[in-house]
Amino acid sequence: MSDFRGHIAYNADALTEQDQARAGAPFLGAGLSKPRVWRDACASLALAQRIVTAEDRVELQPVADAAGRVVLFDGYLFDPAALIADLGLRPRTPDSEVTAAWLARYGFDALHRLQGDFACALWDPSDRRLHLFVAPMALRTIYWHARPAGVWFATTLSALHQFPGVPQQLDPLQLALQFTAAVGDPADTLYKDIRLVAPGCHVIAGPAGVQERTFWRLDPSRRVQLKSPEAYVEAARALLDQAVRRSLRAATTPGVTLSGGLDSAAVAASAARILAPQSLPTYTVEPPPGRTLAERGGWYDRERPYVDALAARYPNLQPHFCHSDDPASIELDPTAFFVAGGRPVINANHIGWFDPAYRTAQGNGHNVLLTGQSGNLTLSYSGMRGLGDLARAGRIDQLIRLLPGAARYRQNTLWGTLKGEVLLPALPAKLGAALWRWRHGDAAPSTKYAAIRSDFAAQVGLDAALAAQGEDGLALYGSDSRKLIVHHLGAQRVRMIETIRAVRAYYGLELRDPLADPDLTEFCLAIPRDQYLLGGVQRSLARRVLADRLPEAVLAERGFGRQNPEWFTRITAQRESFAAEIERLAQVPLAAELLDLPRLKQLLDTWPEDAAAAETRRFELAQLLPRAVQTGRFIRWSERGNH
């Protein structure tokens, strides 16, 4: 779609020539056109187009409506034809103009009704107010910085920092939070005095100040009750097809990142049915041919048999299998990623593993890729934590009925399942935290799984910041499955969206997540928990919903597909660069204060002999180590002035 940025000075004499000039500077993301600029006495606004939908070809943003209000729009509406008919607009009116006309008629109080995956800015010169808002569950963000004299905003941090008036000082507390994958206020960013507009939120900035409000959020108290298990299946199927159909809106056929799991297979199969006989390319990452891999119980390493089974059922699927023997450039030197997105990514080795698929999709002319990213929290939720919901609600009859089958299905003991899914999560928060510390030593939950110095965490107030948000670092241990899902699809997902936004800037690929569609998500959150465990079968809802479109090989698989199963070979190829980087980071004050560099050196000094020996240390070598190095590289890059 597009990237945009702007600067509003509430008094004309506060609009500096530098900020005016930089508004129209080239954007740093891939695949963007030369910016178009709109200016008046107080505002300087710019947008660079990326062609994603057919209507993007006729977009002429920034666009002013009849009342002189100027709109900047990034994304797409789910059903523009219906809105165009309702508003009496000409056929195939660009989404930016549809949105401007819709807001003129219905106003900002009705934002929850405007469905799509978009971010939007509206400048109203008549009352000197700027509106920034992002659609519910959208994979979009808007960053902003405000001072009494005015406000600066952009769709990426890199675009925002092109304004000389925007500070670039890292916030140590936010750096610690994001490094440990914890979330305080999701609107906070890595930089001091820069916030973001999260999905379902609306920011209003004007001479009187800034107001932040939420116009939509997932409601864990909402319930949907239908007459029968078959009714839930029918409703979920309709919502799945609707979600996939919405995500297919593009100028050229999207691709699909496809694995052997239920999530991406659901998206690919549904899209293939909708598009048939039109071809649908899919992209699957797999280990190099002939590569010997260390075994891991309950997991499978190669997706090809499942993809082949799906392709046999849908002749219009065009599978592409991708791999790489070497680490991707984002893993070895992520400078270009930092420049494009303005932020680090804590799972660089994960994105590096996907890099061959992204590059192949680029080469095939795609600018949109569909994923099954959120399926585990929506359609294909396992249902296991729902056992705790039944216990809390006093539905012991249902718990007794479902527990034995659930335990057998995962080949676990009855006691182990009861303890892990019902009893431990039900402990009071303080008792649960005490038990956790007894089992894991003195390390706080927020730092146990990150190479962060405990004195730095205490100095910046990491645990206090989490406590202020009602978070103790043990979010996964709660017994209320709906609240856990809301946390991960809400606050926690914002950090994932920031990463996806940076990936989009780096590769020029728009990732879409149909399984996070707001209508589908609300339904999956509200239905009874036993629908996910009927017959003791985990992911029962997904398996029943997808029975009409997936082969038995995919439906019946109980194991989990391993992403990056050749991780040890790929991480070993980076060992020397990690060692060199750790030495450099010792000379970077903020990195040396934040990172536990001795712990990182010890990891390198005690390197396993082979993949089998490394498997027991998978987390610390495949996640903790590269996450720390990537964070350090970002700090070093940032302190050089973000060049």
Q: Can you tell me about this structure?
A:
The longest helix is centred in the last third of the chain and has 22 residues, at 618-639. With 643 residues, the chain is α/β, with parallel strands linked by helices. The model has no long low-confidence stretch (mean pLDDT 90). The protein has a 6-stranded antiparallel beta sheet with strand order 2-3-1-9-8-10. The chain has a 6-stranded antiparallel beta sheet with strand order 4-5-6-7-11-12, covered by helices on one side. Strands 16-14-13-17-18 form a 5-stranded parallel beta sheet. It contains 29 helices and 19 strands.
Question: How is the secondary structure organized here?
Answer:
Layout: E1 2-9, H1 17-23, E2 36-39, E3 43-49, E4 63-64, E5 70-77, H2 80-87, H3 95-106, E6 116-124, E7 129-134, E8 142-147, E9 150-154, H4 157-160, H5 172-179, E10 195-197, E11 201-206, E12 209-214, H6 229-247, E13 255-257, H7 262-275, E14 280-285, E15 299-300, H8 304-313, E16 317-322, H9 329-332, H10 335-341, H11 348-363, E17 368-370, H12 386-392, H13 396-409, H14 414-423, H15 429-440, H16 445-448, H17 454-460, H18 462-468, H19 481-489, H20 491-507, E18 510-512, H21 518-526, H22 540-545, H23 552-555, E19 560-561, H24 567-572, H25 575-585, H26 589-594, H27 597-605, H28 611-614, H29 618-639
Parallel strand pairs: 13-14, 13-17, 14-16, 15-19, 17-18
Antiparallel strand pairs: 1-3, 1-9, 2-3, 4-5, 5-6, 6-7, 7-11, 8-9, 8-10, 11-12
Helix pairs in contact: 2-3, 6-7, 6-21, 10-20, 12-13, 12-14, 13-14, 19-20, 25-27, 25-29
